[in-house]
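Components:
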Amino acid sequence: MQATIIENTSHNSYGFLSLSVPEEAVNDYRPGQFYMLSANNKNTYDPILRRPFAPYSVNSDRHELTFLFSIVGRGTRALADMGKDVRLSISAPLGNPFKILKGNIALIAGGVGLAPINYLAKQLIYAGANVTLYYGARNKDLLFPPFIDNKFGSFKHATPKSKQTKLVICTDDGSYEIQGFGTDLFATDVANTHFDACYAVGPKPMMRAAHDICVKHNIPLHISLEEIMACGVGACGGCMIDIKRDGKIQSVRCCTEGPAFDSKEVFF
Amino acid sequence: MDRLAIKLCGVDFKNPLIAASGTFGYGLEYAEVCDLNAMGGISVKGLSLEPHQGNSMPRIRETAAGMLNSIGLQNIGVRAFIKDKLPRLHEYNTRIIVNFWGKTEEEYCKVAQILDDVDVDMLEMNISCPNVKEGGQSFSATPDSAANVTSAVRKVVKNKPLIVKLSPNVSDITLYANAVERAGADALSAINTLIGMAINVKTRKPYLANGIGGLSGAAIKPIAVHIVHKIYKSVKIPIIGVGGIMTGEDAAEFFLAGASAVQVGTANFAEHEAIPRIASELNKYCADNSVNNVSELTGGLLI
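Structure:
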């Protein structure tokens, strides 16, 4: 499928891309799934592979997707440099989504892990969950400015059925709001608040910390894993990861069996 | 698109675009994202006698206009393919080519024998893998070793056209093309990936856990076109051109160089619907150039 760039902006080390996409690209999207986006120059086919990204938001009425991504390599740099109205190749929504759970939910987002968590939060709120979102980064520059400027802004318009939503923002160095790790703040809250489930997306050490807390308090935790991918549909064998399932170690495809996993299955 | 209909080794193809082995899984993985009925054929992931685990991760590394892979021929094994995948693949109107390989000549023959009796259209032998009985030396080590394994397989494959996929990592590929033609191959596919390496200069280690991998993608197309042309001049059997095809005009280049059909590999990663698009582009190229059937292009290079 082809998408057209509506807007493409950079915020510190983040790219933020809005795309107009065919209807079938947004109709069946479920939180935790990803899209593969091309970053190539059509004449050179370079970079040749598309990149997997979970969307930051999905607008199924306007057939629009937005993506928040870290500008880290030549693919993401090329993507960040693309101008308005450029057409690029996009896949259908791919991968195994998060299970949508109800009740009192903790969400932990580290850095660019905010992207899938942002949209998941919206869906959980729609579904009637009470959401507490812990969003952290190493420093203020690594917090996505439009999100922190807006303070849960995207959720305000979500007509929440839920009783409460709470946003906790923290930085490792204290350069913005609370100093500390999101997982530490979650650990403190867990002592006095009952959480029915937790979702965490971010660096592996962050997800491991979330896992340790959730195991201790017997809270189901769902996380999203990342791998370099070529096809994104389970055909190439490029994104294999080992997980614990049915009492044994299994090698599975991150793109197809994942990227969303129960943290109990994951080797941290 | 009748102008794209071809006959290859007696098998009718609605169009000459075949998904290259290793890039299209068992076909079914793409069923939700690509119209399998629009494909000329699918060459499924290389099968071995027993399931095979493949190499350690990382297995892929992108390079300039291409990629290296060292998947290591991971597959579910020939019997599981026949039982679990093939019946579902038969629901689609496309030709099924089964790529296969072995660690020994006996294994090649056993896999081939099993496949000769099932409902698939063609067999494609990968001879670029190591022979464990010869100290891990490749079956493509010499033209003789390539011919030996081909003629052994030829003896057991009685009902299906046999394609041999040639490795470009040899000094003179025409010697191999001639040798496997004499050994009974019905067609050749060329080229398999080119061996390459990419090094992380920070860690001073290769990016791939296996150290080396096979280079594919747009980057290798000129090499592949040249090799197809060289082979075309030295054999009589048809050639399936493969290597870096991204567009209909790329496919036309292979035909002009001497191919009778083409395979598309890495482009399937870059765009899941690549093959149906390339088919319609090739059809347009033919229409625009008064070509009534794509096979008229084969070997049409003017020099």
